[in-house]
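Re-run requested by the PI after the first attempt was lost when the workstation crashed. Everything re-entered from the original request form. Ligand of interest: 2-phosphoglycolic acid.
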Amino acid sequence: MEGDFYGCKLAASEYSDPMTAKRPLFVAANWKMHTRLVDGRVLVQEMSDYLRQAPVAGAVDIAICPPFPYLHMHEGAAHQAGMWLGAQDCHAADDGAFTGDVSAAMLKDVGCDVVILGHSERRALHQETDAMISAKLRTAVAAGLHVILCVGEALAQRELGKEHFLPQLETQLLASLPEGVADAQVSVAYEPIWAIGTGKTATLEEISEVHVQLHHILRTKRNLNLRVLYGGSVKANNALEILSLPVVDGVLVGGASLKAPEFCTIINAAQHAYRQR
Ligand code: PGA
């Protein structure tokens, strides 16, 4: 059987496994360096109230990723509401003389379940290389954290055409993802850099094309069936159409995750999309 996703032909077995095809969608909130303690508490409270009225267990996995200092403070409320707690980075070592850094084991200690690695803002601002991200990922997984591994092309790369940026994405993905991880340990987030925080979302065709490729690379090169999330200006008004794409397994949300009504609409869209699968 072959699927036709906006012109991308792929055998259905290459992106969906009957055993895992109906796995929960994953909606992750990347708060970046936003929210003070009170703002975060209100946000988590509003999300908890929503989830109490509209439970999503089994259909949608939700993670919130606040700034480091607040992780422990949001731990109880996040877990009580059935959400995972995530950090936005970690160091590759367990301990050591690394001023200002935080290890995966420390994140685990304060109740984290998830860590985002390789976000383009960190790749750009902190010169994080694929090799550094791969080392962090290995440590994070060993510490028992689920990793959201971000990959994505810059506008200049995309403008060179798909025969250029798709192989670059493959290289970035495989170099950032160490061998030997399991499906449950990692999700990939495709985040085109030009769509992050710009209000410029990739089209459904562009998202499908890349997700098909990423699933294909993961399956053929690593024998993995990871969830592949989309990120980049996901909002309440476009989440449903994005999450309805069969090759999209969730979303990584920045700006729109800072307003509870908007983020809850995205959660609701994921639940709806899950039911349609
Ligand atoms: P955005 O950010 O939703 O604000 O575009 C996404 C991200 O950077 O993870």
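Saved to the shared folder this time. Residues 1-15 have pLDDT under 50 and may be disordered.
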